[in-house]
Amino acid sequence: MKAARDLPIYETAAQYQGPAFMIHGTGDVVVPYTYSLRYQRIYFQGQVKLVEGEDHGFSKNTKGATRAVADFFCEQLKSKF
After folding, report:
1. What are the tens digits of pLDDT across the range 43-65?
2. Residue 3: pLDDT above 90?
3. Do the beta carbons of residue 80 and residue 66 sit within 8 Å?
4. Beta-sheet pairing, 19-25 with 45-51
5. For 22-53, b where at least 16 C-beta lie within 10 A, e where not — what string?
6. Distance between CA atoms of residues 11 and 21, nearest Å
7. 70: enclosing H helix or E strand
8. Are 51 and 25 in contact (CB under 8 A)?
9. 28, 50 Cβ separation under 8 angstroms
């Protein structure tokens, strides 16, 4: 069984050409926020929102994280219609 760390995640991600939104807490100890910064450079239309001090599950400000994601989707829908 392959572990996620053994998969070519960045090479696979580079094939995606659509909009991408990464929201990441700077206090995430499960997945460092620098991973999202790397994805931002890979994705053609990548955007990153870093949330200071937030953890992996956004337990400090779930509503704020939800609002940021909803705003991104709203902007995407506006650009399509």
Report:
1. 989 999 999 999 999 999 899 89
2. no
3. no
4. parallel
5. bbbbeebeeeebeebebbbebbeebebeebee
6. 18
7. helix 62-80
8. yes
9. no
The domain segmentation of the chain, as residue ranges, is 18-80
Residue 19 pairs in a beta bridge with 45
Tokens representing 42?
A: 């890979």
Separation between Cα atoms, residue 25 and residue 53, nearest integer Å? 6
Going by C-alpha positions, the residue among 23, 19, 75, 80 that lies closest to residue 54 is 23
Whether this prediction's pTM lies above 0.85 is answered by: no
Asked if 35 contacts 5 with a C-beta cutoff of 8 angstroms, the reply is no
CB within 8 Å of 44: residues ≥ 6 apart = 16, 17, 18
